[in-house]
């Protein structure tokens, strides 16, 4: 629930920061859930999350990171940055999974992103709801003008087509590569015989 080690719990017990409700003869500590939930999270970091879709956008990733860190620095917030490279429709990225784990364990004070769609193409509202349930503040630097429903829908359809095209052609290129390797192997066998 807290994401801490037994050693940290022992240290907190010694300092009086968190005392167990009950302790067994074997040393197992039991805590009141209400005490765990009320622990001070003031030292928790602000998480800056930056994402781009492809390798050729790495400069944009650096710009996002710089902007996020500058914004947070101006506010005096202690930050950690999580960066991702991949589609906003890919939920298996290392960074987004780390972010979700930190949200669920309440290991952050706030989440800062440049634009709403930098988080996820679909599903960002779910992440925002999780943050709200955990008492984590969400800061979107560039809220700007909200696109119309039609503009948002067109962007979503384009994103879906792009992802599926990449998967389709990616799988074909793998098959083509294997076919070329097989043909080269056969050609070298013909030359040697």
- What portion of residues belong to β-strands? 5-15%
CATH level 1 class label of the largest domain: Alpha Beta
β-strand number: 6
Largest sheet: 4 strands, parallel
Task: Summarize this structure as a short list of keywords or feature phrases.
Recombinase_CS, alpha/beta, DNA strand exchange activity, 6 helices, 193 residues, DNA-bd_dom_put_sf, Rossmann fold, four-stranded parallel beta sheet
Secondary-structure map with pairings?
Layout (H helix, E strand, L loop, with lengths): L5 H10 L6 E2 L5 E2 L2 H5 L8 E7 L5 H18 L3 E7 L8 H11 L5 E4 L10 H11 L2 E4 L8 H44 L1
Parallel strand pairs: 3-4, 3-5, 5-6
Antiparallel strand pairs: 1-2
GO molecular function, one term: DNA strand exchange activity
Pfam families: MerR (PF00376), Resolvase (PF00239)
GO biological process, one term: regulation of DNA-templated transcription
Model description:
The protein starts with 5 loop residues before the first helix and ends with a helix. The longest helix has 44 residues. It has 193 residues and is of the alpha/beta class. α3 links the parallel β3 and β4. The chain has 6 helices and 6 strands. The protein is 51% helix and 13% strand. The protein folds into 3 domains: 32 residues, no CATH class; 95 residues, Rossmann fold, CATH 3.40.50; 47 residues. The strands form 2 sheets. A 4-stranded parallel β-sheet has the order 4-3-5-6, sandwiched between helices. It has a two-stranded antiparallel ribbon with strand order 1-2.
